[in-house]
Design goal:
The protein is α/β, with parallel strands linked by helices and 559 residues long. Helices cover 36% and strands 13% of the residues. The strands form three sheets. The protein has an eight-stranded mixed beta sheet with strand order 7-8-12-11-10-9-13-14. A hairpin with a 2-residue loop joins strand 5 (149-151) and strand 6. The chain is globular, with a radius of gyration of 24 Å. The chain starts with 6 loop residues before the first helix and ends in a 19-residue tail after the last helix. The chain binds FE2/S2 (inorganic) cluster. The site of FE2/S2 (inorganic) cluster (FES) has 11 residues, from helix 6. FE2/S2 (inorganic) cluster binds next to helix 6.
């Protein structure tokens, strides 16, 4: 193998070459590890603070077996990890920080290729962003979804069913004991959330992009095939070095169009819109909300997994996983896109047919996510149509405005909250700069008063994101956000709002002069941070329609 990147470190004549070899040998390596073996970094987002990724040390051990078998030297290294359930104010605040950590850890070290171990929501896009910028051969190995929870004869899918059961608990239909039982069984194994939330969506899209071996995304974390997949990926990483297939050769515009198509077919998370725009931005490709909407309109949602459907990731795995999904929609894909194993996407999925047409359906509705525009969202907003109530997709109602999430949380269970089933709930100051960090606050809980009347959904609008495990007629990512003076900032309680998903419109039914007048007197809230990473974030984060990457991390956009 010639022209290895790591040779710059270890084959250097004189003191520095010797010192690098000597100090690494302090880990117990014999001299012949420097005889030209390719060095494969294993970029591990393992952390006991990220339960979804806590088994990744074992996955790394399997990757090492594969690297060694292929004649390479594996070297595992940590990066920061992003645990969705624990980090405050939100993991999204730190996605770009992890991407910087991944990029610079790869670039600064003697690596010829890198294996990216991910799972929990933001860890996958952060690694893809960092690896795309570093641009040495890279392969993604997801940790896989957890197994289904079991409660009173019901199979539970992590976040989605947890939220549904919480509404029962809030309204007195579950006891304290039952609620405690749910806590013990809803997340019972290693792995990430087992619905088509953001984690499952992003690992599936890593596969659709061609950045994993085929079939990698849906293998459950505790399944023995997860480790076999990791070992094979370690071997593939060594082969990638010789081929010179770096991320920028795999992450083409056509590959991103494939990923968007698969996103719609999965009924995947709205968060993927932001993440795909950001990953594409790292290789100089500008994805727009129009790209997503154009593809959504021609792509059926075929995957019947919660929250858009009925099943869980485990079922999708048994039905054939992402390759079977891509096989089903093959006519909509760019089959010639090259992937990490050297084959095209078309070759990888050609023979994997669905084993269960209840899980991977043959007929279905339009793709999962619609992009909205209008005077309330001049730069766009998103709605997950497949998780919304059909009758509410065309709706007009009076607004009830929450200035902040704190206000919403304080009021939402009030018996005298002046709302009814037609009210449009509006919540602001929840965007990238306003919250700060663009948290998953957009799934405003249903007012208790309405739940008690049997109303389970209503139109809700914010500049926040929503967990991929959530559901409802929820409009998200309103851009520009209210904290920078987007029109959401000047909605008043009682204003009429019209949602028309078929026409892709979201409008405040107030005259342009009145909106302009209100915006004239808008004053931004004071910044949340004056120093540190928070200050860097506020100074440089872009809006939702631009992927929320930092402006200085994006190269010149050329496509
Ligand atoms: Fe990690 Fe859901 S909390 S994927």
């Amino acid at each position: 193998m010639k022209n290895k990147r790591s040779s710059q470190w270890f084959q250097t004549p004189g003191y520095h070459g010797m010192a690098r070899r000597a100090w690494l040998r302090s880990e117990g390596f014999p001299a012949d590890v420097f005889d030209g073996k390719p060095i494969v970094g294993i970029c591990n987002s393992w952390s006991e603070l990220t339960n979804c990724n806590v088994h990744l040390r074992e996955v790394a051990a399997a990757v090492k077996r594969g690297v060694l078998a292929a004649g390479g030297l594996p070297l595992e290294f940590p990066t920061i990890s992003l645990g969705e359930m624990l980090m405050l104010p939100t993991t999204m605040m730190f996605r770009n920080l992890m991407a910087m950590d991944v990029e610079e850890s790869i670039r600064a070290n003697p690596l010829d290729a890198v294996v990216l171990l991910c799972g929990c929501d933001k860890t996958t896009p952060a690694q893809l962003m960092g690896a795309a910028s570093a641009d040495i051969p890279a392969i993604v190995v997801p940790g896989g979804p957890m197994l289904a929870g079991q409660f009173q004869g019901q199979r539970l899918g992590s976040g989605t069913d947890g939220r549904k059961l919480f509404d029962l608990y809030r309204t007195g239909k579950l006891t304290d004991e039952e609620w405690s039982e749910v806590e013990g069984c809803i997340a019972r194994t290693s792995g990430h959330c087992t619905v088509m939330g953001t984690a499952s969506t992003m690992t599936s899209l890593a596969e659709a992009l061609g950045m994993t071996l085929p079939g990698s995304a849906s293998i459950p974390a505790p399944d023995s095939r997860r480790m076999a997949n990791a070992e094979l990926s370690g071997r593939a990483a060594v082969e990638l070095i010789e081929s010179g297939r770096t991320p920028s050769r795999i992450l083409t515009r056509e590959a991103f169009e494939n990923a968007i198509t698969v996103l719609m077919a999965l009924g995947g998370s709205t968060n993927a819109v932001v993440h795909l725009i950001a990953i594409a931005g790292r290789v100089g490709i500008r994805l727009t909300l129009d790209d997503f909407d154009r593809i959504a309109r021609k792509t059926p949602c075929v995957v019947n997994v919660k929250p858009s459907g009925e099943y869980l990731m485990e079922d999708l795995f048994h039905a054939g996983g992402v390759p079977a999904v891509m096989n089903r929609i093959a006519s909509l894909l760019h089959g010639g896109c090259v992937t990490v194993n050297g084959k095209t996407i078309g070759q990888n999925v050609a023979t994997t047919v669905s084993q269960d047409d209840n899980v991977i359906r043959t007929i279905s509705a339009e793709g999962g996510i619609a992009m909205l525009h209008g005077n309330l969202a001049p730069n766009g907003a998103v709605i997950k149509v497949t998780a919304a109530t059909r009758e509410l997709l065309q709706h007009r109602g009076g607004a009830y405005v929450f200035e902040t999430r704190d206000q919403m949380m304080a009021e939402i269970d009030r018996d005298d909250l002046p709302v009814d089933r037609d009210t449009v709930l509006v919540m602001r100051n929840c965007g990238p700069k306003g919250a700060p960090g663009f948290p998953e606050w957009g799934h405003i809980p249903m007012p208790k008063k309405l739940l008690q009347q049997g109303v389970t959904d209503m139109v809700r609008i914010s500049d926040a994101r929503m967990s991929g495990t959530s559901f409802g007629t929820v409009i998200l990512h309103v851009a520009p956000e209210s904290a920078v003076g987007g029109p959401l900032a000047v909605v008043k309680t009682g204003d009429e709002i019209e949602l028309d998903v078929a026409a892709r419109r979201l409008d405040l039914k107030v005259s342009p002069e009145e909106i302009e007048g209100r915006l004239q007197s808008f004053a931004p809230p004071p910044p949340h941070y004056q120093r540190g990473y928070g200050r860097l974030f506020l100074d440089h984060v872009t809006q939702a329609d631009q992927g929320c990457d930092f402006d200085f991390l994006m190269p010149e956009v050329n496509q």
